[in-house]
Specification:
Elements (H helix, E strand, L loop, with lengths): L5 H8 L3 E4 L11 E2 L5 E2 L4 H12 L3 E5 L5 H10 L3 E3 L5 H12 L6 E5 L5 H4 L4 E4 L13 E2 L8 H12 L3 H11 L2
Helix pairs in contact: 2-6
């Protein structure tokens, strides 16, 4: 993991909710559609493990994406993510609604994005994150750019960062050991 600045540490300590884009963040951005029109996506198991660790540690996770896909719904269910907003045209309005419904402040929310459509939310959240292969224009707006690319461990990287900064990492790992006995 990259060296974490004191500013990043300070912001990450307040996060209780991680909101994720899908294409380009949870996936590598490729969309595979077969000749019958069936869409598939590739998800990284390490990102999934990171999400599970967050959820077990009391940091909630949600999905906010412009596209709609049954694949995303299935993956979210597998991981225990209950907040899934797909087919969202106005991501900022959806973000504001989610924030209000959950009774959260911007400073308590982290958002991970990869492209122009994520810009408005990234400017508002308490801890803004872009994946390594994001649109270059995001780097001047976000608090942190992951070392990993979208769909290749970037979400896991942020999960570890949040858990370590909040001193929940070792307890989360210990829970894994307990579940294997």
């Amino acid at each position: 993991m990259k060296r974490i600045s004191s500013d990043v540490r300070s912001k990450a300590k307040n996060i209780v909710f991680l909101l994720l884009d899908v294409d380009g963040v949870l996936t590598d951005g490729r969309i595979i559609i077969d000749d019958r029109g069936i869409e598939t996506k590739h998800f990284n198991v390490r990102d999934g493990q990171g999400i599970s660790l967050l959820l077990r540690s009391g940091i909630d996770v949600g999905i906010l994406t412009s596209r709609s896909s049954p694949t995303v719904r299935h993956r979210a269910k597998d991981l225990g993510i209950s907040l899934v907003r797909q087919g969202v045209r106005d991501k900022l309005a959806a973000y504001q609604t989610i924030k209000r419904q959950r009774g959260l402040k911007d400073a308590q929310i982290s958002y991970m994005g990869d492209d122009i459509v994520d810009l408005a939310i990234l400017r508002r959240v308490g801890f803004a994150v872009a994946v390594a292969d994001a649109w270059p224009g995001l780097s001047s707006v976000v608090d942190y750019v992951t070392a990993g690319e979208g769909g290749d461990g970037a979400v896991r990287e942020i999960a570890e960062l949040l858990l370590k900064v909040q001193r929940k990492w070792w307890a989360a790992i210990a829970q894994l050991d307990d579940t294997r006995r």
